[in-house]
Amino acid sequence: MVNPLALQQSVAEVYLDANATTPVLPQIAEAVTHTMQAIYGNPSSSHITGLKARYILDHTRRLGRQLIGAQRGQFIFTSGATEGIQTAVLSALTAYQRSRRAQAGANEHKPVVLYGATEHKAVPQSLQHWLSVLAIDAELLAIPVDNEGLLDQSFIRQHLPHCLLICTMAVNNETGVYQDLQGLDKLIRSSNPDTLWMVDCVQALGKLDLQLDTLSIDYAPFSGHKLYAPKGIGFFYVREGAPYTPLIIGGGQESGLRSGTENLPGIAALHTLFELLLDDSGASPFQSHQVLCDYRQQLAAALRDSFPSISFNHDFQRSVPTTLNFSVKGILSRDIMDVFDASNIRVSSGSACSSKVARSFVLDAMQRPKWCSEGAIRLSFGPAISQAEVSQACQRIRQAGEALKQACMIVSDSQDDGADHRLDGVVQLKFDQHCCYLLIDQQSHQVIVIDPVAALSERICNIIRCRHYQVQGVISSDAELAHVDGSLALLNQLFLAEREVDAWGWPVKSTASDLHIAGSQQQADAKLTVGDRQLSRVGSRQPLYLLSNSLNDAIDFAFIGKHREAQQLAGLVTNDTLLCPSDDDDNQLFFNLCELQSDCQAEVFHVDVPVGTDLAWLTDSELLILDVREQQEHLMQPIAAAGEVKNVPLTRLAQFVQQADAQTRQRPLVCVCRSGNRSRLAAAALVRQGFSQVQQLQGGIGFWLAEQQRSA
After folding, report:
1. Are residues 649 and 674 in the same domain?
2. In the chain, how many domains are there?
3. Entry pTM
4. pLDDT tier at 567 (50, 70, 90 boundaries)?
5. Which domain holds residue 74?
6. How many helices (H) and strands (E) does the chain have?
């Protein structure tokens, strides 16, 4: 059977998330396979098979020492950097405990433990953990950084005299900013020669020239999977004479420093990696520093072309060339990530994953603006990347930028008049739990904005300017929030400066509403029009806004703010009215009156389309496929199927539901998105609204494609 799902499966993936992990190079994978199949002995065994394994272990250690410039001290194989960090912290704190016992009764200052404010979370969390476990009363202090991400040396100098451990990183994992290790060495040893110093070297391997014998670093953890080796293998440097306490004991491996049978296939991977990094014959796949800088410039140029309002969050002169961290004003990081993913470009947000909007603690520490922190994207590549891959990445980035322009996420001088032509009716935008609504009339090019929020102001402005909308009103259901947020006043000033409005943004001089609300003691007191529809206001303290068609009094939508009182709403709306809240913590998107009254609780149940090789849902000509991704994702990664495919993003789902006739509500349909999260929300909302044959693609397009490739 020919796969009718046109999802660019033939388009190669452009992987630009190397700071998270890297693919395994073919040479390294071959070394791992060979070791597993042919050199399977235990390095602790004394027979020939064991001695072969021991040779790989010892020779890899020699190569590793050469690579990091550490002929002295300990070189220990570990499971990765996290284990090395734990071991370093445990060793330093245990040494302090011993010295404190030896000096019992001495009048000593309360000790401090220092770590960089932009350090990977593994470091401060490890410090907190072991300080608690060992019951050490020490003050844990974050070293501030300047706006370039460089550590505050005056702060370090101030606290070093009573510091028992200082933790810094060689290269930041989010921004690629590198610290001056030579300068830090002089500072630390001139202020406190006895303090212990750990440096996280994970992102430095293969990117900086490390000569650890020339520095007084006590502990340096490394990880293999950040540089083309498998996950689960790393190594740990300990300076000669530095205190050491094993984290894992029992067996005596690694000279008793780290027990447990060595991960020989992983160590073989490091062996090949070290050989490639040390190869100066020109045969190595690793590019020179200058070539990598040129690649960065090409990628930066493509990003600037695609995103005119881009801001790079680090100084290229103070960061390794393999990391680009940027933000685009007015566009959330998830929107960029989604369209990149649809373009088969893999990047990551600059901060940890979260169900809500996450900020980058690294950029916060660097005093970057709030919008930069909330919208950060990290693009990172490995030093073995090729010119062909960079060229392809630049082409895809520009294509993604064009898709965002067509969706009015970006406004340009050459805007296509046909861009986003399907925007009509109610559009729901969300930031965190907050909902903002645009009431758009396509024919008249008019728009009303309800409950704007500052984080979405730029996007709202882009949509208005991109489509040349005439703004009829910018209003809020919460005057207090609107005052604190500031976006209501901003948008009114931008688009309705000549109009006098009240605290909710409602025109002081507005037309009386002619909406008749049968059986209600409340009456609409004023109206705004958008095309042939009218938006009427009910109440003045906590207003509700009712959207109806001017041809009749049917209320299609009620924008209820934070109202949830069924009794109050019952006199204003019917069960056919979609209720649109200003806050949506539980991701309902919208609901109706009977849900509030708890007398129409339909079972929220839908059948997941199984992930596998079954393509029946794609060959069913009666099936309606709802692609609930945003327009720019749909443009970059279209779906071809035997049935009808309709792009209905979550932002427009409310309008789709309101317009759906009885036949559509009974039609079999499947909701599809990138990961399954949005399609699950859409499917649940549709079931609640009476759609009877709803399914969703479990795991989304990404999981489905992975399963297809695995089964091929």
Report:
1. yes
2. 4
3. 0.87
4. confident
5. 26-277
6. 23, 27
